[in-house]
C-alpha cells in the first residue's frame, strides 16, 4: 500500500489520479490533497477518500508535503507555481510523480540537484513513454530520444496561413482538452518545446539527440532509438490514467488501468517531419535550454503572458512567439536559485506586458 499525496487534485491530472486510486484501493491510500482555489471540490474528494490533510494554494501545498508522511507526491499543479511544492517533495524523500513540467523546466539544475537517482518519475505521456522505452537498453546504448507531437489543430498550415488564427481555433485541439494556456501552447508547439527541455533534464540527453516527429493519431507517445538501429516505441490509446498510474506505482504497472489497442481493427499510424518554419518554437526552446540558468523561466513566463494577450485580442497568433523571442533576447541569465527564478519570471512578465502594450 502506497501513501499518496495529490497536489492539484481538482484539476484534470488530479481527478484522473483519484480515478486510479478509486479503482485500486488495495494499492494506494490518499493521505493528502491540495487545490488552487476549488475548496468545495477538494473537500468532497477528502470526504470520499477519508483524507484528513487538505491544503489550498501554493504555500499550504508546500506545508502539506513537508508535514504529511507519504510515499509518493503527485504534482499535478499547473504552471511554474508548482516549483516550491516540487522542491518540498524532493526534500521530503518521497517519490515525485511529476506532471507539473514547468517546475522542472524553470527550476532546472535547482530541481535536479535535490533529486536522488530515480526519485522523479515523469507523468507527461511523452516522458513516461521514454522512461518505459529506456528499460530496453543501457544508457550507453541510447542514440536519441524522439518525442511525438500531434501537430495540433494547425498541422499542415504554412506560416502565412497562421496569421489570422483566432483564439477559438487555437483551442480546438484534435485530441486533448488541457485548459487555455496548455491547449494554446500545443497549437504553437511551445508545449513540445517545453517537453524537449523537460526530456533533457529528466534523462540527461543532449539537445542535439532529442528530436520531434509529428504523429497526428497520438497513439505512439514517444520513442527511444538505440545505437544498433532499434527503435522502441510505447503505444496506447490516449488516456492519461496510464502514465499517472505508472507515476504512482513505478516501477510496477497497474493492471486494467487503461484499455489496450485493438489489433483486430485496421488502422494507420503516420509520422511527419516538424515544419520548423511554421512552428519555430521547438528550435527556440532548444536554444533556451542550452542557455540554462534563468532563461527557461523567462521563456515560460513570457509565453504565458503572450498567450493571455492573444486570447484578450491584444496580439495576433504569430505575435505570441515573436514576443517570447524578444523577451528572451533581452534577458541576461542569472543564477537559478528559487529567488532568482521567481525574480526572472516577474521581470519576464513585466517585459512581455510592456512589449504587448507598445
Structure description:
- There is one protein chain.
- With 358 residues, the protein is α/β, with parallel strands linked by helices.
- It has 3 domains: 2-123 and 240-249, 3-Layer(aba) Sandwich (Rossmann fold); 124-238 and 262-278, no CATH class; 292-358, Orthogonal Bundle (Rna Polymerase Sigma Factor, Chain: A), CATH 1.10.1740.10.
- Helix content is 45%, strand content 16%.
- The chain is built from 15 helices and 11 strands.
- The protein has helices spanning 12-23, 39-49, 57-67, 83-92, 101-107, 109-112, 125-133, 167-170, 180-188, 190-203, 241-249, 281-291, 295-311, 317-330, 338-357, and strands at residues 2-7, 28-35, 53-56, 72-75, 95-98, 120-122, 142-149, 210-214, 220-226, 231-235, 272-273.
- The strands form 2 sheets. It has a 6-stranded parallel β-sheet with strand order 3-2-1-4-5-6, with helices on both faces. A 5-stranded mixed β-sheet has the order 10-9-7-8-11, covered by helices on one side.
- Strand 2 (28-35), helix 2 (39-49) and strand 3 (53-56) form a beta-alpha-beta unit.
- It is globular.
- It starts with a strand and ends with a helix.
